[in-house]
């Protein structure tokens, strides 16, 4: 059975249809890339799955239960976590306190010593072992991204939505970032990632969905999709393909 199911999901902003009748399913354990040119509706799709934007039409289901229409916190409690294109941290708090905020507001909150132990485990998982007391505003860009991922993982999601999590990293950081997402994938996490870094898409995604002007134009195994003439024309250009 599908973990995530979008059926004819549409988002209209006034006269603009940002996402137009988008349908796809994710099976548990898949890592799928959501690709497309700037403005094609990828982030809007993530925003509807995670409840940050209501759908105009259509429905989103998680594990067979309809989640469209629920608030973002209810959807998070049901198992959807996400990262944002622009990292959302609490800069005046420490790294550990940032993760604690996620632990405290999840479906089964953790506090005190249990939370401390869990924070250390989560920070180690994302490559920030021993950094709980460091102020969040002193982190480098990649470490901020790692912390944001720890916050997402703190909610114990069944589905992780990554919005350009690898954008803006230098080649060494990119390698480390790809390795980190690979380890999540290997742990069985279901991941939907919006990404423009094609090396990362090739390394991480078994399957890709491509959008153009709000509409799905391709969906299939990564190698097939990335050589699809319509995808090359609309998004990749000959060089990238
Ligand atoms: N809150 C909003 N109000 C009005 N228009 C919006 C809003 N959010 C997105 N849009 C528009 O919807 C379209 C799709 O935007 P979206 O951010 O989903 O694209 P994207 O594929 O994620 O692009 P990028 O790769 O640049 O992040 C764009 O035309 C955008 O300007």
Automatic annotation (TrEMBL):
Domain of life the protein comes from: Bacteria
Span of domain ABC transporter: 4-238
One cellular-component annotation, GO: plasma membrane
Keyword Transport: yes
InterPro entries cross-referenced by the UniProt entry: AAA+_ATPase (IPR003593), ABC_AA/LPS_Transport (IPR051120), ABC_transporter-like_ATP-bd (IPR003439), BCA_ABC_TP_C (IPR032823), P-loop_NTPase (IPR027417)
Any one GO molecular-function label of the UniProt entry: ATP binding
GO BP, sorted A to Z: D-alanine transmembrane transport; L-alanine transport; L-isoleucine import across plasma membrane; L-valine import across plasma membrane
UniProt keyword ATP-binding, yes or no: yes
Keywords: ATP-binding, Nucleotide-binding, Transport
Protein name: ABC transporter
Species, as recorded: Devosia limi DSM 17137
